[in-house]
UniProtKB/TrEMBL annotation:
Subcellular location: Cell inner membrane
Protein name in UniProt: Lipopolysaccharide export system permease protein LptF
Membrane-topology annotation of the record: Multi-pass membrane protein
Keywords of the record: Cell inner membrane, Cell membrane, Membrane, Transmembrane, Transmembrane helix, Transport
Membrane-spanning segments: 12-36, 48-78, 99-121, 274-296, 308-329, 335-355
GO BP term, pick one: transmembrane transport
Gene Ontology CC annotation, any one: ATP-binding cassette (ABC) transporter complex
Superkingdom, natural source: Bacteria
Length: 366
């Protein structure tokens, strides 16, 4: 490997490592804030926040890797121009086209890694996330209740709040529950509660001494009930709580379907996601090639002009890929055309910019 290629590859990988680490930290910070908020609202269990964060990172890695590679190549080429290092390479007989070899040496392995993530790892991670959510949704209401928190279940039809138990025999302490059914709006309070299982396997939430207030909307009907012991049958979900059922429900989500399943059932929606999964590694390669001419700048000009242009082109590229996926899903664009059209246009644009940057303009006649 030549001195130039070793230096270029080393700098690109160094920049990519810094950019990748920064993007991962930013993504993880935003993700954890959202997941902790979901856990506080009762949408997911607090015990699965870390697991869901790790699986969510796996789903985000293809885009993060592609963006990191693009920015790393762009900054490396731009730095070489601004610090007049490119003059030395040009004087040694090299040209901007010589950058394609080290760029592809970095981009091809990254594109293969992105393909592994998009075709295999990301669908698996989406299935794990869906399974976490399915298991939480299939848990009984009482198992979702945490002391000191308001928990909504059944789309807000039930709201629970409980305190720490005062005795060791009680599973829950002071309980306040709001229940909405088609006829009554009910508020139940009790000093303690626990879960008991009957001989036939049915589970009941048994409240200690307390009160129940029932009201009917749009009427004057109102009733108060005092009780020393009040049992509420918890819905049995054993038929839907098996691992096989949870896996089947998780696989129903299109993002979580294995690539082999999408290929076996090639409807329009499946073809759209096959196009998306194949688009990310191809986009990484095209953006890497496009970064070379975009990084060629005049050191005398401003420092951010080419960066702004590169960012706008990358956003346009990814938005057109998303748009093509939507058109394929709706049947407005043929899969055989949509799978390569956007990449072909931007690859031609990269070749044109590379030719325009390398061409020698003849001097103007006096």
């Amino acid at each position: 490997m030549s001195l130039f290629k070793r230096a270029a590859v080393s700098e690109i990988l160094s920049h990519m490592g810094v950019i990748f680490s920064t993007l991962i930290i930013i993504w993880l910070s935003v993700l954890l804030v959202r997941l902790v908020g979901d856990a506080a609202n009762g949408s997911i269990g607090a015990e699965v926040v870390l697991g869901m964060a790790l699986f969510s990172i796996v789903t985000a890695l293809p885009v993060i890797l592609a963006v990191s590679l693009f920015i790393a190549i762009l900054t490396t080429v731009t730095r070489s121009y601004r610090e007049s290092e490119m003059v030395v390479w040009f004087a040694s007989g090299l040209s901007l086209r010589s950058w394609l070899s080290p760029i592809l040496s970095c981009a091809v392995p990254i594109a293969i890694l992105i393909a592994v993530f998009t075709f295999y790892a990301s669908p698996w991670a989406y299935r794990q996330i869906a399974e976490y959510k399915q298991r939480f949704e299939l848990r009984s209401d009482i198992s979702k209740v945490s002391t000191g928190q308001f928990i909504e279940t059944e789309n807000g039809a039930r709201v629970f709040f409980t305190e720490e138990p005062e005795t060791e025999q009680a599973e829950l302490g002071q309980v306040v529950a709001r229940i909405i059914d088609p006829e009554w709006f009910s508020v139940i309070t009790a000093r303690q509660a626990q879960v008991e299982e009957a001989d036939n396997g049915d589970r009941f939430l048994v409240l200690g001494e307390g009160h129940r207030y029932d009201m009917q909307e749009d009427t004057a009907a109102f009733r108060i009930t005092d009780f020393s012991r009040y049992g509420v049958r918890l819905e049995s979900k054993d038929d839907r709580s098996s691992d096989e059922y949870i896996r089947q429900q998780a696989a129903e989500q299109i993002k979580a379907r294995p690539t082999s399943m999408l290929l076996a059932q090639p409807d329009e929606l499946a073809l759209a996601h096959i196009m998306w999964r194949s688009a990310l590694p191809l986009a990484a390669l095209v953006l890497a090639i496009l970064a070379a001419p975009l990084g060629a700048v005049n050191p005398r000009l401003g420092k951010s002009g080419n960066m702004l242009t590169a960012g706008l082109l990358a956003l346009l590229y990814m938005n057109l890929i998303n748009l093509s996926r939507g058109w394929i899903a709706k049947g407005n664009l043929d899969f055989s055309l949509g799978v390569w059209a956007v990449h072909g246009v931007f690859l031609l644009l990269a070749c044109y910019l590379l030719w325009r940057t390398m061409r020698i303009t003849p001097p103007k006649p006096i």
